[in-house]
Amino acid sequence: MPEDRTSTPPPAANEATPPAPAPAGFKPWLPLLITTVFMPVLAWGMTQFVILPQLQQGLGISAPAGAPAAAKANKKDAKKEKSVSVPMNKLLVNVADTMGARYLLVSLSLVGSGPDFQAKITEHDAQLRDIASGVLGSKSLADLEKPGERNLIRNELISGFNGILGDSAI
Q1: pLDDT per residue as tens digits for the range 90-129
Q2: pTM: predicted TM-score of the whole model, two decimal places
Q3: Among 43, 97, 111, 129, which is disulfide-ready with 140 (CB 3.0 to 4.6 Å)?
């Protein structure tokens, strides 16, 4: 019997079918676009409403310009009060990690307002000196030479002093 050569043989079971073409258009790019837009907005929101307020509260910085009117009124009242400066002279501290070979001689000036500020400083002088020597004595020579370290030390001292004298005394 003669074979029919015009018909094609059936496809073999082990032959793979060609892969479906990738979907074209906007849908595959949607996760990338959402991430590109959403992440900067999320970062800005976290910085503006979470991180900055916590830093300002921790460092004792006053409320930002968009603060409520009550906070602004308290700020005006605080400016009306006379600021008092009380010197804390000659505090001698060994610098950390120098085995007593280097020391730091410091004079501090504490500024605050209130009618009894100077009396509070005089009353808690020993505690304030202890806090200052503890903070300064924990710093190594390398720490003291870092740029911007003076502001960090100032903030540590202010928070320690305010812990003794009461919130926002200094």
Answers
A1: 888 888 888 878 888 888 888 888 778 888 888 988 998 8
A2: 0.51
A3: 97
Q: Locate 91 and state its tokens.
A: 């505090």
Total number of domains in the chain? 2
Per-residue burial over 79-95, b if 16 or more Cβ lie within 10 Å, else e, is eeeeeeebebeeeebeb
Q: Which residue has the higher pLDDT, 160 or 12?
A: 160
Q: What angle do CA 86, 95, 145 make, to 5 degrees?
A: 85
In whole angstroms, what separates CA 81 from the centre of its chain?
Answer: 30
Q: Mind listing the pLDDT tens digit for each residue in 15-55?
A: 666 666 666 777 888 888 888 988 999 999 999 998 888 88
How far, in Å, CA of 66 to CA of 147, rounded?
31
- At 101, phi and psi to the nearest 5? -80, -25
State the burial class of residue 167 (Cβ atoms within 10 Å of its Cβ: 0-12, 13-18, 19+).
Answer: exposed
- Rounded to the nearest angstrom, the gap between the alpha carbon of residue 75 and the centroid of all alpha carbons in its chain is 24
User: Which residues form the domain of 113?
Assistant: 82-165
- Please report, for residues 86, 94, 151, the alpha-carbon distance to residue 161 in angstroms, rounded to integers and kept in the order given: 13, 20, 15
**Do the domain assignments include residue 107?**
yes
Q: Which helix (H) or strand (E) holds 118?
A: helix 117-123
Residues 108 and 36 grouped into a single domain: no
